[in-house]
Structure formats: structure tokens, C-alpha cells
Amino acid sequence: MKLVITMSRRFGTGASIIANDLSVRLGIPVYDKAFIEQKLGKHEYETEVEAIRKLAESPCIILGRCASNILNDRMNVLNIYVCADKEDRIHRIMKLESLSYEEAEEKLERTDAQRAAYYHEHTGKTWGDVNDYHMIMDTSELGVENCADILMHYFEKLEYI
Q1: CA angle 131, 64, 57 (to 5 degrees)
Q2: What is the domain range of residue 14?
Q3: Beta carbons of 24 and 149 less than 8 angstroms apart
Q4: How far does Cα 26 stand from its chain's mean position?
Q5: Which of 46, 55, 72, 151 has the fewest Cβ atoms surrounding its Cβ within 10 A?
Q6: Contact, 11 vs 89, CB < 8 A?
Q7: How far apart are CA 35 and CA 137, in angstroms?
Q8: At a CB cut-off of 8 Å and minimum separation 6, what does 68 contact?
Q9: Closest by Cα among 36, 66, 56, 54 to 129
């Protein structure tokens, strides 16, 4: 399998759970903001774009960081956008971070606004535009626990794995 998966997501959708599940099943690493910033801090790469392009030379899953846009010229990349109902996201954040409803809602709004601004600043595009992704997964409808199964079935059907 030479597939690179990019996963953009709204805060609180469970996308990192899906990415980690896929990572185990496919035997490929997941790279996120913390990992990429660590590599930049160690001066292994000069820019995030360079880091993402280099990491994507091998099969992997990249969470966020405008990877779908950075790698849009590659044929082996599948861009996924993960969304969910706001109420579901708030309750997931409350549970994971032991926050009140109001605290979780505020964190959700702040984080989504930061992600949208970051994406627009680096791509000039609207974050979450369906035209920029091959697949949209709604974890409220599909269930976080089912998304990796759905993707694995899709990969098998297309003979990616």
C-alpha cells in the first residue's frame, strides 16, 4: 500500500481515534501538529510544507496542517474531512477533558475558529469546503467506532490494501 491519508477535522469529532485505529490496522504512522512541530524544532525540516511532503513519501496518515492542500498534486493521497454535530462534539469534549458544557462549547468554538483561520491563511481556501476532499465522514451519523471499518472496506474494494 502506497496510500497517504490526510484527515482534516472539526474539533471533537473523534478523528484522532479513527486515525489511530487505521494506523494500527494498516501498520502506518500518524503524524499530527505536535509531531511536525517537534521535527521543525529539531531543525529536521525548514517548513511545515517541506516536512509534510517528506513524510508523505511513505504511507502515512497526516492530521490537519493543510496536508490535503499541500499534497493535492499527488495521486496516492486520499483526503478525508471528519465532521459531527455540534452537540455530539461538545459532549465528547466534556467527557474527554472533564469540562463543563459551557467550557467545552467555548473550547470547540475557539479551536474551530483557529483551524479555519490557519487553513485560510495557508491556502486561501475555506476550511471544510467539500470540493477539497475525496470523502466526508460524519461521526454523528456513522459513529466514531465504525469509521475505520468503513474506510478499511473502501480500501479493500479499491484494492489499496
Answers
A1: 95
A2: 4-157
A3: no
A4: 16
A5: 46
A6: yes
A7: 24
A8: 6, 8, 77, 79, 132, 133
A9: 66
**What pTM did the predictor assign?**
0.94
**Which residue has cell 459513529?**
143
pLDDT tens across 2-40, in order? Answer: 899 999 999 999 999 999 999 999 999 999 999 999 999
Kindly report, residue by residue over 32-61, the tens digit of the pLDDT.
999 999 999 999 999 999 999 999 999 999
Q: Which residues of 132-142 are buried (b: 16+ CB within 10 A; e: fewer)?
A: bbeeebebbee
* Residue (of 89, 67, 92) closest to 78 by Cα position: 67
Residue 150's CATH number: 3.40.50.300
Residue with the three cell numbers 531543525: 43
Give the separation between CA 12 and CA 92, rounded to whole angstroms.
6
Spatial separation of the C-alpha atoms in residues 26 and 129, rounded to whole Å: 27
